[in-house]
Design goal:
- The chain has 590 residues and is mainly beta.
- The strands form eleven sheets. Strands 1, 2, 3, 4, 5, 6, 7, 8 and 9 form a nine-stranded antiparallel β-sheet that branches.
- Mean pLDDT is 91; it is low at 15-35.
Length: 590
Amino acid sequence: MTTSPRRVAGLLVALILALAALVVPRAHAETGASGSGRAVTVTPARPMAGERTRFSGRIGAKNGPAALERRKGKRWVTVARGKVRNGKFKVTAKVRKPGTYRVRAGGSTSKKVKVRLAAQAAQMGVGAPFVAGLPRQALATLTPARAGRVVSLQRLTGTTWSTVASGTTDGAGVARIPYAGGPVGTASYRVIGERHRGSAATTSAPQPVRTAASPELVSAGTSASEHSSDPSVSADGRWVAFSSESPLLPSDTDDDDDIYLFDRVTGGLTHLVAGATGHVNSPILSGDGRHVAFQSDAIDLAGEPGYDYDVFVLDRATGQVELVSTTAGGTIPADDDSYLYDMSDDGRVVAFTSTATDLVASLPPPDHTVRHAYVRTRGDISRGLDRVGLGWSDANVFGLDLSADGRRVTFQSGDTDLDPGDVDGSAIFAWDVAVSGTISGRSNLTPDIDADSPSLSGTGDVLAFTTAEALSAQDLNGARDTYLRVAPGSFVLAGPYGAAGNPGGTLSDDARYVTMGTKNVLPGDTNGGQADIVVWERASGTSTLVTRAGAGASGEDQLSADGSVLVFGSAAAVAPGATGNYDVFAVVMR
């Protein structure tokens, strides 16, 4: 029997159609059994548009090809292919559209799964200014979080964005990008999450970021020609407050001292308590920089009618100025001068001295001849620190210092009648301060030691002080040195050893870093015996000479809580723009 060519062609077409039915089609009609299979695992669960995504699970077929399908109307469209091995399928696809998906293999289909796409976003954070020549971190946060994604930090120069540093994200989608800063000044920066596993790049909004010099002149202004001093730094090193005799801003129209606040992040300078008719000086910052304690003889602050110095706290958030040195239980200014020494990190506890006789109601000082020590928790009354029996010390009190948490206060006194005794010249005493404001447990921290210049760690457990006594076998210079009291009767000699001594130490909160003055000529020191500032690291015993050139002494050094920023005053031209009188500077230590 013969077969016509036309019949052969028809058989071939039928055969081709039959074979095509055995292969996974690119489009299928909706069937009732399409959702009867097993569940599909989608990794990541919410992919970015275009991101390579794995669909996996079990299916009825043992081995062979598998197809990932997306429902389009009433039909299923194949978007990617994979394989089935031992009943387990895995298909990888660049998912570009949200929708309902399933996997088909060998006549079996998985359960349907709805896939939603995750919107991308990038944010940049810079908690402190970049510093020229010193690596700092720019923080990039990408959503959704993907580990190992490359992030670029870009700077705008003219109209061109250029990559200046890069990093990779951790599992939380955060990249910490080290960057040593660009030219000193402010420029626009942004971060870009680069293409990742097929997804598009994502870019943050640009933001201005300042690159600061280090050391940096803080007390700069429109007419910075006179003395600036009394620096105080916030816990994170962002804010620096100081006093100045110079009219640094147009709002300063008198010849009196004023206080200013410098923002190291933006480079902005603010005149605080503008318009006060009198001297305003000696600022102390709270940890977050919101509260500023200061002293003033202005006649128009918080109802002060006279020209005595009083102690105040400014709340920068509300603009309210609160009088601290009031009569007992009242709001009336005390009847004589009060001088600020310190404030706790939360701005609640203030330590000061005064020659007033009406700060306390019970057994007040008999006259105005002696400066007594007080601590006051705002909202409570002032508490006298140097009482002797039913009376008061007959020696002036100095050197008040608070722990950062406000739970301990120290002062120095040479009164041998103060208990506990064993006062040899000058001793450092401490009180515990309760949250309510009450004080208890006065102790002598330096019995039989002539000590001064106390500085407490953040919790008050470590004390830095100055003495000429040799409390260490290595101390043979007979000069005034800085020691740390780390436990009762246990002392550590701080700083680089030298014949001239290293007095006046102040502490970081964790007592890891200690600042001190020195007239020793240390390596790199080119100004001879001028008073310089050294930062000593307790764990390693290493020292960093901060000021080393220029004629003029440096002092008034204070560290931020973490020891990363040092502020100080100096008559030396430490940075460009210095007046050569006495200026305030900031140095980034790490």
